[in-house]
Design goal:
By secondary structure, this protein is α/β, with parallel strands linked by helices. The two termini are 23 Å apart. It contains 8 helices and 14 strands. The chain has helices spanning 51-64, 98-111, 130-138, 140-158, 204-221, 249-256, 310-319, 339-348; strands at 2-7, 10-15, 18-21, 24-26, 28-32, 68-75, 82-83, 89-91, 115-122, 167-171, 227-231, 266-269, 295-299, 324-327. The protein is globular, with a radius of gyration of 19 Å.
Length: 361
């Protein structure tokens, strides 16, 4: 199975376990931005308030040798997309600037040779707008209104743009998983230690249907688009070690019924809250998880790293067969790695050539 995304005159593709560009295996080295103004970076003319800071981070990431950045966009619907009072989505935003705002960000990334990975929703917290996101997760009509009036127009606006490396459907849905829910179907039966720290709200049946429909919609517009979900940890993203990979093709299709609504690569987040967990990527090589798609270590931090420095963290991910490393986070000074240290981690591997870190989008 080969999955592709347009990249310049050629295409970036994932061949089972690696990303490929211009016939060479590449490694995605970068950071989570993840936002300048949480939930208020795009739409309703808001990008003008974030543009200068975002450009600075992209420029400095490029100068450090990075090639990719994960950027959050909808969160839980605080300012976009534009919802009706009964919870349907009628547009990307009220004032109609969302696409132009988003394209301005894409132009900045192109300028600095940075692949963008927009993350649509956030499941790690309970926010004041959670009821909006809840509607599009649970209600078929509300979900379809989001797909028709927000997601598809956004994907159409940047279809084929080589700067869009992939779409992350949700950050850490596990934060809102009902860990007490049990189902005869293993794809939908939650793990007691698999999340639920923010609220025990959604079953995997609900989440996976949401993801299946969104992934299928993205690919209906751009068949070469790459799609993932920002899994909180390895506990929910591998069938090894007595665990269940909820995000494998089988589970997504069973939940939503759309054969094209599958992921093209996996991501895992990992923090050493009291040391690395037994399944942390920093205790394993990529082959230990026995996945059939590339795997990015998409969140980690020197503040919770068991004493490892940023250069050591990036070096470990690169040397142990993973397909990318994105530290957390350029603008989060409380939980994230300081920006100056993040850049040192990126610089540690900037000259590596197998897989290649420095490549042209």
């Amino acid at each position: 199975m080969v999955m592709k995304a347009n990249s310049g005159g050629m295409q970036m593709a994932s061949n089972h376990s690696h990303f490929m560009k211009d016939g060479k295996r590449v490694f995605l080295s970068g950071v989570n931005l993840a936002w300048i103004h949480y939930a208020y970076d795009f739409g309703n003319g808001q990008f003008k308030n974030s543009k200068a800071d975002m450009e600075r981070y992209m420029k400095e990431l490029h100068e450090a040798g990075g090639n990719s950045m994960r950027v959050w966009i909808f969160m839980q619907g605080e300012s976009s997309p534009d919802f009706t009072t009964d919870g349907h989505v009628r547009a990307l935003d009220h004032q109609g600037t969302y696409i132009s705002d988003f394209k301005e960000m894409v132009a900045l990334a192109k300028k600095y040779n940075i692949l963008l990975f927009p993350c649509l929703w956030n499941g790690a917290v309970v926010g004041q707008s959670l009821h909006k996101m809840t509607g599009v997760i649970r209600d078929d009509l509300k979900r379809q209104s989001f797909i028709d009036n927000a997601l598809i127009p956004l994907v159409k606006a940047v279809k084929g743009d080589p700067t869009i490396g992939g779409w992350d459907l949700m950050n850490e849905p596990e934060g809102l998983v009902n860990t007490a829910y049990r189902d005869a179907e293993p794809c939908f039966s939650s793990l007691s230690d698999g999340g639920g720290w923010a609220a025990k709200m959604f079953t995997y049946r609900e989440f996976l249907k949401f993801f299946n429909w969104m992934a299928a919609a993205i690919k209906s517009v751009d068949s070469g688009a790459l799609v993932t979900v920002g899994a909180n940890n390895a506990y929910v993203a591998t069938d090894e070690f007595g665990r269940t990979n909820f995000y494998k093709d089988e589970c997504l299709i069973k939940a939503g019924g759309k054969n094209t609504g599958i992921l093209d690569f996996y991501t895992m987040h990992t923090y050493a809250w009291s040391g690395w967990s037994d399944l942390s990527p920093f205790k394993h090589s990529v082959g230990d998880y026995k996945l059939d798609k590339p795997l990015i270590v998409a969140e980690f931090s020197t503040k919770k790293s068991n004493g490892m420095t940023a250069p050591q963290l990036y070096r470990y991910v690169y040397d142990h067969g993973y397909s990318g490393a994105w530290t957390w986070a350029a603008t989060d000074n409380s939980a994230g790695t300081p920006w100056e240290d993040e850049k040192k981690g990126v610089a540690e591997i900037r000259n590596e050539k197998d897989p290649l870190v420095a490549f042209t989008i």
